Amino acid sequence: MSKETETQLETILRRLRAMQVDDRQTVQTRYFEQFGVAVCKVTFDHGTGDWTVQDARTEPAFSYDNIDMVAVAVYDALSEFTAVF
């Protein structure tokens, strides 16, 4: 699949999987941006296998143990931000 045909959800999943593979640090953190603005922060703890998604605008953090649910949460945050931008 080329980059041009890759969906936004597939791109998010690819970045999340990279966090799982990268074991240089116990806790991995990535920011997901839209239009150069940080929309949410995702943290993965290798020790527990837990994910945390924190919305940059509203500050609450939500915990997940499933990568697919994390991808949906990030996708929703990016879509919502795009709709109001």
TrEMBL record:
What InterPro entries does the annotation carry?
Answer: YkuJ-like, YkuJ-like_sf
Q: What is this protein called?
A: DUF1797 domain-containing protein
Q: Which domain of life is it from?
A: Bacteria
